[in-house]
Amino acid sequence: MAEAGGVGGAGVVVTGVAAVAGTGWDLAALGARTAAGEPAFTPVTRFDAGRYRTDLAAQLPGDPVLADELVSIVGTACEQAGLGAAERAVSPLLVAVHGDPAVARLPESERTGPGAIAASIARRSGLGPAPRAYMTACVAASTAVADAAAMISHGRAHRVVVAAGYLVEQDNFALFDAGRSLAPDGHVRPFSAGRQGMLLGDGIAAVVLESAEEAARRGAAPLARIAGWGRAGDAFHITQPDPEGGGMTRAVTAALRKAGRVPADIGYINAHGTGTAQSDVAETAALHRALGADAARIPVSSSKSVHGHTLQAGGLVELAVTVHAVRTGRLPVNAGYVGPDERCGLNLVLDRPVEREVDYALTLNSAFGGANTALVVARV
């Protein structure tokens, strides 16, 4: 069932945003590489990937520790937002991660359950009480953003910090390889003929969301606005998407309704776009159902074609890419494209970034189990 609601995001602004990925150690590198369509896939160095269908992923150098990188990225976003210690102390943290504290490499003394990761990151970052962990696969981060925006718009919080992280590791690599989801040709080709699957990537991101009134009171300059959000389930299959894109259709429709917008207002879509055969077709169907004739007009790309699939972190990494694109007016290239697939009739950004001012953009995510999310990002 789609999330209901009227215009709800008029006062939810982004005052801090930070992200790192296999493209480099800051949002500027991520924005530049995705805009240019320069994939970041290199041979895996953290474990022996020689037995798998591919040995490529988009990795940060070395062997970073996820818990440490989450603390660092939260600090960067909070500094950009101008948050002092007192303001951080009353700001709740929502964090999207793998549920196993060992994956985040928490100290043994702190590995008390899935919520331990959120508690540890909040404590080390000086953030408020009752942190919450999200582990709902590839919509974990975007679900956390939607919850944060709802908390703010309903007056339950003045400000919420959302963080998410995934670093390529062998267990998930082996799992997706066993499911024949990884692209053996080493390229992610969303919505393209000849696409063979996805590739994994590192991703750590954080955003500070506030009410417009709170940002104005502090004198913080908004970077963008979360104008609308929608969530809906397919109820179709545990791993396969609804071929007609039913859940994503409802999520997009709900997000537009909450934003008080119509399809003609949307100027860019950062699609889920995994480069897998069934998922891309289902997403295309959903966009045509939700947007009508505008689906053939709106520029579309999937930044996963550059930074890879960052799993639980995907929704936040891709929100950061979308905010960067809206702020710079450079719409990212859909990399890896080799030719049209008649089942994926979208206005893909190819060859070079589209230089255009965009007032409203969509960023979309889907997950196993049939979960779908849509966020409307507005330029300020």
From TrEMBL:
Keywords: Transferase
Keyword rRNA-binding recorded: no
Domain Ketosynthase family 3 (KS3): 2-379
Superkingdom of origin: Bacteria
Keyword Cell cycle: no
Gene3D superfamilies linked: 3.40.47.10
SMART domains recorded: PKS_KS
Similarity comment text for this entry: Belongs to the thiolase-like superfamily. Beta-ketoacyl-ACP synthases family.
Protein name per Swiss-Prot or TrEMBL: 3-oxoacyl-(Acyl-carrier-protein) synthase
